[in-house]
Amino acid sequence: xxxxxxxxxxxxxxxxxxxxxxxxxxxxxxxxxxxxxxxxxxxxxxxxxxxxxxxxxxxxxxxxxxxxxxxxxxxxxxxxxxxxxxxxxxxxxxxxxxxxxxxxxxxxxxxxxxxxxxxxxxxxxxxxxxxxxxxxxxxxxxxxxxxxxxxxxxxxxxxxxxxxxxxxxxxxxxxxxxxxxxxxxxxxxxxxxxxxxxxxxxxxxxxxxxxxxxxxxxxxxxxxxxxxxxxxxxxxxxxxxxxxxxxxxxxxxxxxxxxxxxxxxxxxxxxxxxxxxxxxxxxxxxxxxxxxxxxxxxxxxxxxxxxxxxxxxxxxxxxxxxxxxxxxxxxxxxxxxxxxxxxxxxxxxxxxxxxxxxxxxxxxxxxxxxxxxxxxxxxxxxxxxxxxxxxxxxxxxxx
Length: 399
Fold this sequence. Notes:
With 399 residues, the chain is of the alpha/beta class. It has 2 domains: 4-170 and 361-390, Glycogen Phosphorylase B (Rossmann fold, 3-Layer(aba) Sandwich); 178-359, Glycogen Phosphorylase B (Rossmann fold, 3-Layer(aba) Sandwich), CATH 3.40.50.2000. It is built from 16 helices and 12 strands. It has a 6-stranded parallel beta sheet with strand order 2-1-3-4-5-6, sandwiched between helices. β7 (201-206), α9 and β8 form a beta-alpha-beta unit. It is elongated, with a radius of gyration of 23 Å.
């Protein structure tokens, strides 16, 4: 009988962590080495339709308003019961909330192997959340970090090195390379970009507008300098969230509203990147950015802040440029240099495409994850044999 593995994700919203977890679930299911199950904290999200096509059976949800109080306890009890009833052998959680909820439940349910994940290095958590996270890590057999920078952060927090596995994000290049045969004008129309001059150069960012950690204000300040130096430049901002209105207001204050296009959630990433000349990321902190991989896989040069795992993807002056967080002036200078030297920009983009294919493929993600699962199963089996050999059949310690 195949080991039963359950992937616990936060939601089906469009986000880097969610998309990575869902794509991993699909590939594990297609591989057939394990029996794959899926559960979520929130049942809603635009990616749910894709998940239902996997035919994994019912996908239970365990909605939480808080870890505390009767509602949290009731959902925890439901999930413990689900893990027992489904006879889950391994639980793999993918972010902060699923780590805390899942590790506690798996421990109570007696799940054999428990894996948590860490995808960020920033201090985004409250003291109470940090205490919960620390306990969750103690209950985990292994913590998957998606970059070396995250691994180092875990080590700083006191996690033993042998309890951390680095598995880089994998990218399905079909998401960024499946471009329909249509003109640039048609693609821009599909993206919702108003008619622009044929010689317009587009600088693109793909990042949510829910958290200030993405530091869109830095990008808009850089955009002001870029537009002043390269009048035919314009910026495409793909992302949604509650910060969008304040960012729109800032663009107006900087007098670049007519050169910044807020696209909202983008369903046409391949088309977006195909019309882009340079791609950027202005984050104050990251674990490992999926957007950077998408930019590179689409053959676009990247200018990004040197935070988190960016340095593990971007080869300075070969696939793009790294700038200090908050340094909008240097970011502007790097963008301007690439817009003025299209040959260098193309060469960087092609080099980036090669790096993604070699280092960040979905095949590598799948192989490394399956190897981790098997290693943990083998370790647990070995530990049980050691315990069994220590005691005789009556439970008496052997001589």
